[in-house]
Amino acid sequence: MKYSIRAVTFKSGERFVNLFAPDGSPMYWPTVWSLSTYRGRNKSVNTIESVLRAVKALYEFLDGAGVELESRLRTGRLLSLGELEGLVQALRVSNKSPLGQNKVIDLNISKSKIATATTIGSGLFSARLIYVREYLVFRCQETILKLSNDNPSRASLEGELKIAEQFLKARAPKKSTPLSEREGLAPERLKRLAAVVDHESSENPFKSEAVRFRNQLIIQSFIETGVRRGELLNIKIEDINFRAQTLKIIRRPNDPGDSRKFQPLVKTRGREIPISPNLCEKLRLYIFRFRGNGVYAKKHGYLFVSDRGGQPLSLKSLNVIFDKIRAAAPDLQKNIHPHILRHTWNDAFSEAMDRQKISPEMEEKLRAELMGWSPTSSMPSCYTKRHIRERAIDVLKKQQEKILRGKNA
């Protein structure tokens, strides 16, 4: 039996996740850490689950390497450099890979084996390193506080912790270069995507009229509002004001009416955003003509539902929709997914601000409000890469033309 993460739902509808040892008992220190560090900061249950999955990978590595963490800490030791390298390799491998499922971790795993194993993306790998580092710091500090100042194990553990922190930080993936940073879709790609998902298109990969219409509406909603996946799937019918043509994005953590295993959540601040008359009318048509066909659709208020029973559409099902779109149109970018459309919305917003000659300061405030970020957030700069690059190229071309005119004068 392996380590496992299980969710408990209380009568109030609130969910809590915990890490369990191979013998089926809840693990004390991971519970204390996740409650004090993440639950105490009102982080979502999904975030806490991700955190515990990293700690789960840590303990599975320790068991495979024959390391008993508590005994090590009491004697002022943590992990050797070889063990730290083995830990990094183990964190890089996907749980779905045969190598990742192996209980015995070989500290001498070759780079070729790691390369051929199913590895996780750099973003998830970086997050795992951060969570594991935070947990090791927490455990070491807890132990250090219990040791007297003249205890040699105290100074030893402080030194080993410092080395481990530096080692894990150094193994974090390097940030992408400007050319590889995520950008929104270029206009021709956006037009191509819209053509493929049109519910009347012969290229549309979905069969039934209801599914075609729903999926086209999902894509249009992403493009017009710039919402995240969790925000879109968290929308309820009551959040739409058809008269005012607005849409509310509301935080609903631990909603007892949400039957999904992994509840889609609103990560940023709640807000109310305008929607176009066209989108508003299509939402109305979807609700009255297609949404109610499922037997479960009337038992909850979530807007987008599955086609097989009317349950709230899940994150997994949404990902499958994009998988089928990519398969149906190989000429589209391989990374077509909801977050690319969020970047696309931000590019369009920048262009609209330019046309209306809105000041950069006001543009940043408006963007933060519509995206749900705090006024002091640095996130706006992450979503304007393509627009800024195109403006820079345009400025440079005009400067070059001016220089050439001066030479020819």
Backbone structural class: mainly alpha
The strand line-up of the biggest sheet is 3-4-5
Number of strands: 5
Q: How do the SSEs run, as a string of H and E?
A: EEHHHHHHHHHHHEEEHHHHH
Mean pLDDT across every amino acid position: 84
Topology of this structure?
Elements: E1 4-9, E2 15-20, H1 28-38, H2 45-65, H3 69-74, H4 81-92, H5 98-101, H6 111-116, H7 122-145, H8 152-170, H9 187-197, H10 209-225, H11 229-233, E3 240-241, E4 246-249, E5 271-274, H12 277-290, H13 315-328, H14 338-355, H15 360-371, H16 385-408
Antiparallel strand pairs: 1-2, 3-4, 4-5
Structure description:
With 409 residues, this protein is mainly alpha-helical. It folds into 3 domains: 4-175, no CATH class; 190-335, Intergrase catalytic core (hpI Integrase, Chain A, Orthogonal Bundle); 343-408, no CATH class. It has 16 helices and 5 strands. The protein has a 3-stranded antiparallel sheet with strand order 3-4-5. The radius of gyration is 25 Å and the shape is globular. 27% of the residues are buried.
